[in-house]
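Hey,

Quick one before I head out. I ran the complex with G3I overnight. Inputs first:
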Amino acid sequence: GTTLGASAAEKGRYFGVAIAAGRLSDSTYSTIARTEFNSIVAENEMKWDATEPQQGQFNFTNADRIANFAATNGKLLRGHALLWHAQQPGWAQNLSGTALRNAAINHVTRVATQYRGKIHSWDVVNEAFADGSGGGRRDSNLQRTGNDWIEAAFRAARAADPGAKLCYNDYNTDGINAKSTGIYNMVRDFKARGVPIDCVGLQSHLGTSLDSTYQQNIQRFADLGVDVQITELDVQQGNNQANIFASVTRACLAVARCTGITVWGVRDSDSWRTGQNPLLFDASGNKKAAYTSVLNALNAG
Ligand code: G3I
């Protein structure tokens, strides 16, 4: 193939990008998004603060701009993210206990219902595990409603949109470590007890080197019987950037259940990592060496 999306499709996978609705009127940006990628995800527009700014009052205006861009251009659509400790609307930040649990489950149900049949994979719960060596849950208002909040969210999402793959998504899971093992143990438990989970998202916000167990980590999740998706890939600029992008691509292609890769923005100037130039296109929209290395990795073999 001659584009990332077409080349990934030849390998039975997708290659996606995070889109900001406010940038779609920039034709350099939207042309790259349309041409190169076959899946998109909203960078912010489907989050809780964006979709339910007041309790029970849902606003899908900006989320629909992303969904309509996908539909109009024939792109797959990922959903990000139904529940997260960050980017909660103020009213939710101020709730706790049963009131928060009920509001959270209602949120999952309403948003997943709104996009039923349109989303190939939902990040149902985002970033619920703590960093560091403990391997346990992150403290948050959601966690304080009870350890079963994650499975309750997955059950609600399944009921609302039975066709979507339901993912748990997190960062600092770029190899076999305490955090990724904590998640691994949760997924194994969910599979054993019939909690509906279909995929794990490895965000992959990477620095200037890649963990030597990156592929092994993908493989161990796949061996649990879930798909793996690389969901927010970006790599700090440095001598090794192109190699790291290629290594991640090869690692995904090497695992049958690694079904797609999403980069977290179009151009370096669109990235949340200001000054790190972590993406595949430069600020002018030119293809970087990292782009070419990913394309070649997708087309190898
Ligand atoms: O839209 C407002 C604007 O009106 C206001 O003037 C401005 C002032 O701060 O803020 C703008 O909102 C910002 C929004 O991005 C849109 O640009 C928020 O402040 C800012 O916090 C928000 O950052 C997003 C971040 O999540 C929030 O946690 C980033 O764009 C987004 O890339 C980032 O994405 C996350 C994933 O969802 C989860 N994994 C980590 C990843 C990187 O942090």
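The chain has a mean pLDDT of 98.

Talk tomorrow,
K.
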